[in-house]
Write the structure tokens for this entry.
Amino acid sequence: MTDVAHASSPHLAHHFEDMGQQRASASLGMWTFLGTEVMFFGGLFAAYCAYRFSSPDAFRIASRHLSVLLGSINTAVLLTSSLTVALAVRAGQTGDRKEQVRYLLLTMLLGVAFLGIKAVEYSMEFKDHLVPGWNFSYSVLHIPSDVPERTAERTELFFVFYFFMTGLHALHMIIGIGVFAWITHRARRGEFTPEYHTPLECSGLYWHFVDIVWVFLYPLLYLVDLHK
Amino acid sequence: MAGRVDAIFLALIAFSLFFTFAICFLIIYFAVKYRRGSKADRTTTAHSGALMEFLWVFIPFVIVMGLFVWATIVYYHQYRAPDDAFEIYVLGRQWMWELKHPEGKKEINELHVPLGRAVRLTMTSQDVIHSFYVPAFRIKQDVLPERYTSVWFRPTKTGTYHLFCAEYCGTRHSGMIGSVIVMDPVDYESWLANGLEPESMAASGAKLFRTLGCSGCHDVNSTVRAPLLDGVYGHPVPLETGQIVTADERYVRDSILLPKSQVVAGFKPVMPTFQGRIDEDELLKVIAYIKSLGKNVRVER
Amino acid sequence: MSATIEEVETQRTEENYLTADYGIWSWFFTTDHKRIGIMYMISITFFFFLGGAAATLMRLELMTPGGDVVQAETYNKLFTLHGVMMIFFFLVPSIPAVLGNFLLPIMIGARDLAFPKINLASWYFYMVGGLFTVWAILAGGVDTGWTFYTPYSTMFSNTSVILAVVGVFINGFSSIFTGLNFLVTVHKMRAPGMTWFRLPLFVWAMYATSIILVLATPVIAVAMFLIILERSFGVGIFNPKLGGDPILFQHLFWFYSHPVVYVMILPGMGVVSEIVACFARRAVFGYKFMAYALLAIAVIGFLVWGHHMFVSGQSMYGSMVFSMLSFLVAIPSAIKIFNWTATIHKGSLSFDTPMLYALGFIGLFTIGGLTGLMLASLAIDVHVHDTYFVVAHFHYIMVGSAVMAYLGGLHFWWPKMTGRMYPEIWGKLSALVVFVGFNLTFFPQFVLGYLGMPRRYYEYPAEFQVLNVMSTAGASILAVGYVLPLIYLVLSLWLGPKVGSNPWNATGLEWQTSSPPPKHNFDVTPVVKEPPYAYSEERNLT
């Protein structure tokens, strides 16, 4: 069986016995990498939680200033892009070249839309002087006068986490879009067939992961004080 | 306390020596007996290793858990200061120790204490993390900025002992050293009385309490309704949120700097913050004063 | 398999991985795990001697109680340099990236690691990280200690902290890539018949190590990232005045840095298992327990980070839990020591250089482990935390044990890697010198620590001088012990006698291919039919 696979696929790397082994390795490698990513964002979430517990009021006040509307639209955009990726992978499994390209382009478009909306949000926050370490001032937050100054100062911490976490997430998105550009190029050349579509599948996994991170970021950053 | 720590240490040393020598003896013995070409009997019995493995999982487990319990009990007593301890305030900063006696006497890099009395240190740092370490008393505690930590000891022998900073704190870390001088109680009293008669910590605190305007509200005759502070220290305080907290140093400090974060039940959040108007040194004094207010009487409101 | 066999057989049999290609670019662009292993070996040797030079200067400074050899600032930079180089750029990559890279695929009968290009990328990340750190030194050095504790590192130090932190951050990718590659390779690339319980313990050790590398490294990345942010923008993450928490940094830092201690020691345990079995001519006693013990250490290792923080002001009850879990690590460690001892029982022992290193490892690891119990004891740790006792303890584990194992493994597999044998007499001598020098250097530090000498002290009270002089004297012997192998191993590349495929007459797939191995490791994909360490009387008769 191995010699058939070896002879048949131009995609088989020299050190694998057959395509099955190569595919299983790539897939396990991707999952392991995502495990690493989970620990990375996990560390960040842990730090976020520590500070949210130590300065709950500041986080509440600061969170109110984020645009829940834009955040929600972005959540919808990103979730939709997960669907289109899933459809692209599905097209890979059936070997439908046109569908692959179409859904990949759609995914990238949604990704760019997400980043665009994010950029709008960032620019709004920049105008409002809410970028920590750059031009931070909490005067725009309309903090009630009975809130102690110290709590008001700590709203900066919230924005540190806001920018850091969404920024890292956006970086992951940009990398994802870059990867998809390359994958789309390969899809257009008809490289992905029902027998061989591992790169498509792995990049899809990555995109889903980035999506899931946002699913956690959205409530932690935007919905802190929504229950009132 | 040093004796109790040393006892565990010696027990562990004995255990370690036994273990190390047993292993080394076996290795050397086997190395000689079973060296290549020796005529030793190498027929192995057919028994499986499972019983052996179980034994050398189970026996070490029992031993280490015993050690854990013993060391933890001693640690618990190291951690809990006795009630009769008298208080010294410690401020660490790059690269010196400032120590203040309750009577107000201030020392730099030297701490005089009377023999036999428990001493509790309440410590904070002005800059980075330091660590208060007196090897002879087997005590060590990190000293953190914007936070109070404490440690206690009861000296049992007069003499001069090293005081080190044990947490790396910058260029002159190794120069952040001093000594603890344990004196006969009589000598200690005369040492205290000697020299300038400084104000006690609590007395300076009382002055600050007036000059900063605290007494304007927290006073029996005040028109503004604010909680009285007599006997508050060390006791549970019900909060507006329904929580009950113990009024420790941290609580008092937070109430001064962040008055709105923990409002006492039945009062309005009217107190302004003293953030920026009071420094670490003054804070310690005000805390000392509040501690001194009716130490053991709980005043009914 | 037939096509595979034919494909490989077309290569000329005398050709090996070293002669398959020529020229500098055939190295810099290689994806051959063996060549990458060699590149790692050369690079870590450089960083080892850089870190060693710093240690030498420190020991010289500590000969006298006062400051005389260097300034206090310089001393602080030296111990930071020593720590950063030795931990991040020597010990973490040492056995995994050199011996693991070279041997792991061969030991399981694979032609390469699962992701050869990522493997090459890992070396580049490692080098770029290293260059940043060297840049930090050239830019004036860093004085925070390798622990980068906040708020000192973020608000008070005036040195090139960011450069060093960036170096450590980038280096993290190399660890992750190596770990990821090993995990996938062990799972998916084993030769026919190579079941999980036929894996050599070295492979098990690499597997356990990789789990730690993959799951712990990202957390230090977060911690380093936060330091960069805080130091560049002063946003208050670790500044208590702005609501930040300097202790949070310690949690993030030790969540990585404690497990990473096991990244340094687990591979050593793997190496020693191989060596002891070979030179005792016996299967490792309790093989399955040894494998499970490796995994147990890796898993429990994630739950004990708080024992570095007993006096940091964390909750008393938290400390108690961490203390108990730390005691538990002793059990799998004890299993290993007992089983090695049981392995040489009724063996047929010979004492070649690797075996001397391995026996030295067992002795030093025993002492390092037992003093670890003392540090896990809350009451004792309060006293000896941040003193020379701790310094001595972790050097027994990380230098005494891990470096002994690395050198032992290097000697053991040197003929396999180079095709040449080193001079045995010099090998034995160096093993002896390292063992004696090491104990002389670090045993006095246990005493110093219990007497109360804090670590990272540039000057110290005069009463500690005698022990410090002993330690410095030992360090000079130790330095000789480390330079010796460098000289004779390098010389052996030209002068050493050529060896056959299996000079030690050992089991294991790596000994069934030629020395040095061919480019794709095996001329014929091996089929494994027996458990590991199938040593027997008949095999001795050669």
User: Anything to note?
Assistant: Residues 1-12 of chain C have pLDDT under 50 and may be disordered. Chain C touches chain A through 49 residues (CB under 8 Å).
